[in-house]
Amino acid sequence: MKKTKIVATIGPSSWPIPVLRAMIKNGMNAARVNGAFADTAELKKVAELVRSTSTEVALILDIKGHEVRLNKFEEDIPIKQGEQFIIGSSPEDNVFPITYPELYKDLRIGSILLIDDGEVELVVTKILNEKIYTKVLSGNFVKKGKSINTPGTKLSNPSLTKRDIEQIEFCINDRWDYVSASFIRNIEDVKYVKKYTSKSHMKIIAKIEDGEGVKNFDEILEEVEGVMVARGDLGIEVPYEKLPLIQKEIIMKANAKGKPVITATQMLESMIEKPNPTRAEISDIANAILDGTDAVMLSAETSTGKHPVDTIKVMNKVALETEKFIKPEMIPGKPDAPEITDSLAKAAFQVCSDLDIDSIIVVTRTGRAARLLSRFRIKQPIFAFVSEDYFTRRINLSSGVYCYKLPRKYKDRDHALAGIVEIVIKKGLVKKNNKILVIGNASKALENDTYFPNIFEIVNIADFL
After folding, report:
1. Where in the sequence numbering do the catalytic residues fall?
2. How confident is the model over 164-189, as pLDDT tens digits?
3. Averaged pLDDT score across all residues of the chain
């Protein structure tokens, strides 16, 4: 069973039900929608498509936040090195930053603009009448709807746009699982997003995409459910030679804190057009998994690319092979969890290291205990049983954890143990000769709305057959 989770961006290429079904069958665990290009009608459409195919796939809304994008003008614009290129500030201009029309206020003569992940480089030569006059340093075309990066320039645009807020409110009402917030720079950005999510079950994934987000990462990590190494913009906003070590550091810190981390951008970029990956892409996926990432993400590869199902298959194959060589290890650090839950996970790790255990059952209201155990990269699969459906989808971003809703309560510990073992047998998750570790952590009796008592027990499946 694959441990690394796969996040796939859903778009025109993956809208057909047979395609989406094949993507899920081959290892897709979460569906992402890029809010920069979607309206609420598309969000509704994607949710209905995913839910009609699987109840286990998590839904992730990716909002623009501080991201700056060009408008969608009619045709891509050819440019040449040394010539002038003008960016306006309103729909009356042919080209303008639609997500932040006031960009001109933050720029100065000499400011650098990078468009389309650095494919186009411009330098500001003049700002006049709310227009940005630039000289082309490199590039062949300015393409519609592409992002603009401004390395070295601090922007004043708000953490959320009106469109972002509308999308968040829609997804909360539609019971989505995560909001992935672009260009989170500091704790204030997180708190601003939380104003709109705090009374819902929707959790925040902070996308780290610039130097300020890297600098303030520790405080950001404290406030969010998970993080994303968003390497496209990050590799432009910081010197690209620093990117590999930044990726490793973010993953390491997220693991130590017990929070899921996604590695994203250009993982199988060549497969947007071609049926097979490059050798460098295969190594990139494997190295992210070896670094400790919980999930790897596909963007245009599955939203507009020609081979959405094949890219999932490639991810799945690389993950399965790479995971054979991962060594379990006790990760230092104080996770964001009660001390007893952390201790339970550490004890389970030790038992799995010392004894011949085939798999682990963790009964936990929210899934946190399973999440903490998964960060140790143990060889055994972790089957988590939680109290609500939304917890099953939320834990779907944690490496090595397969999550299910506990279908009923039990009158005492022995009946609970027997009932849960019966479930894993019926699901085909264990075999007759398996030895499994069952752990649970609850502070109240079963009658008081908890689903399992405190337990830490090794059982033989044969004893229940």
Report:
1. 32, 69, 207, 265
2. 999 999 999 999 999 999 999 999 99
3. 92
Per-residue pLDDT at 365: 83
Token couple for 97? 């930053």
Q: Is the domain of 172 the same as that of 269?
A: yes
- Residue whose C-alpha is closest to residue 43's, from 172, 181, 199: 172
Asked whether residue 329 is assigned to any structural domain, the reply reads no
Give Cα separations from 442 to 51, 201, 422, 449 (angstroms).
Answer: 31, 21, 21, 10
Which structure tokens are listed for 411?
A: 């009158």
Q: What angle do CA 67, 68, 74 make, to 5 degrees?
A: 130
| DSSP, residue by residue, 231-287 | HHHHHHHS-GGGHHHHHHHHHHHHHHHT--EEEESSTTGGGGT-SS--HHHHHHHHH
Domain residue limits at 384? 339-464
Same domain, 201 and 179: yes
Instruction: Write the single-letter amino acid at 66.
Output: H
Contact 416, 446 (CB under 8 A): yes
pTM of the predicted protein model:
0.91
In a domain, 332, yes or no: no
Is pLDDT at 450 greater than 60 in this prediction? no
Q: Would 328 be classed as within a structural domain?
A: no
Counted domains in the chain: 3
**Among 59-68, 132-141, 227-236, 448-457, which is the least confidently predicted range?**
448-457
Tokens of 155: 């922007």
> In this structure, are 305 and 209 located in the same domain?
yes
Residue 381 in tokens: 């699969």
For residue 411, pLDDT over 80 is answered with no
Answer whether residue 154 is part of any domain. no
Give the CATH number, domain containing residue 226: 3.20.20.60
- Report whether pLDDT(448) > 70: no
Could you tell me if 193 and 133 lie in one domain? no
